[in-house]
Amino acid sequence: MIKMEEKYTKAYAEKLDAKDELKQFRNEFYLNNDTVYMDGNSLGLMSKRSEQTVYDLLDSWKKYAIDGWTNGERPWFYLSESLGEKMAGLVGAKKEEVVVTGSTTVNLHHLVATFYAPKGNRTKILADSLNFPSDIYALKAQLRLKGYDDSHLIQVQSEDGQLLDEETIIDAMAEDVALIVLPSVLYRSGQILDMEKLTKAAHERGIKIGFDLCHSVGAIPHQLHDWDVDFAFWCTYKHLNGGPGSVGALYLNEKHFGVTPGLAGWFSSDKEKQFDMEHSLTSAQNAGAFQIGTPHVLSAAPLIGALDLFHEAGIEKVREKSFQLTAYMMDLITYELKEFGFVICNPTNEKQRGGHIYLEHPEAARICKALKLKGVIPDFRTPSGIRLAPVALYNSFKDVYNCIQILKRIMKDKIYEQFSNEREVVS
Ligand SMILES: *Cc1c(COP(=O)(O)O)cnc(C)c1O
Question: Which of 289, 312, 335 finishes a domain?
Fold first, then answer.
């Protein structure tokens, strides 16, 4: 039995680290010794594997020039598909259902351009009021292209401004809804939506549904194929550690293989036919059809190494440690920071809790600046949110301990008062 107080000591954090089955992965990453990095849900850290695969890719360019498309260890012509195959397990897809291409926003445009087919009274798109702005801009733009205004976008409201209720979303699946696009994990509160339940409800009403996995991929397991999700899309620079601007990815349910891609280009082609250079497209009979033009090979290179680490660790193990890290962090926040007015706004239960902790505090902007001054990298979300992401592959329990100790010191000594309570340009 551990005594209550023991749980809040540095020795206890060290004990948890000693037992951590994933602890050796920390050595795979470039961590700055002077900082505690808690922002892996915005930009994951660089790994040595990624660095190596970028160098390997550069070498293949140096060595093969144009022949690099078909020669060498990783021929560039097939890289998007082979990386998709490598990523499929992380989202619970078959290997041909995933391709690495585009970016979150471009892939969303592409999938909506394909699957949003307003007909008769079914003309609306159903989304939510808490999603990341880029998704909403894209949905509104797609509506405009079809001649509709913003009133055709239904955004399900949140009662408390933090969480969404699946039943409320299902109630909004009315007869005039043609398509549904929702996040898997809300980017602020970290709430996981019940994708299986929502997909089932949508299909019962004859509506197609897709999910944005930006905040869940690499943090939690998914079963997109078994849940029968129609499509999904995500970025690779957050929990997947693909580096700034690394190429995004998408999932296409195999039942939609053969659909005409809405934003077709020559890379949508069946690979055998592509260089026939015909003017009528024979599109690939898999997710690869959702590529447009020449792949961003250099921006995909870090992913080769980054995904190897997930294969070695296993997403189930990653999730298990992530649970332990966030549970530990919430314990410490409750115990150490109780007098300072923080509110834990992420769901605390395991079913709905994603990979990060979300705190609200009226002084959040300047508390984040003080955290940075003291060596903790948080993520500020206007107007009063602080996201802290202890990442399973490279953060330790001691990182969590140190983070909360530093935050406590900042609050006790009012270190944040030396800053203005406004956000920076990039936050
Ligand atoms: C990170 C994120 C994006 C970013 O889109 P990009 O096209 O990669 O810039 C979009 N949507 C959500 C929900 C995100 O979390």
Answer: 312
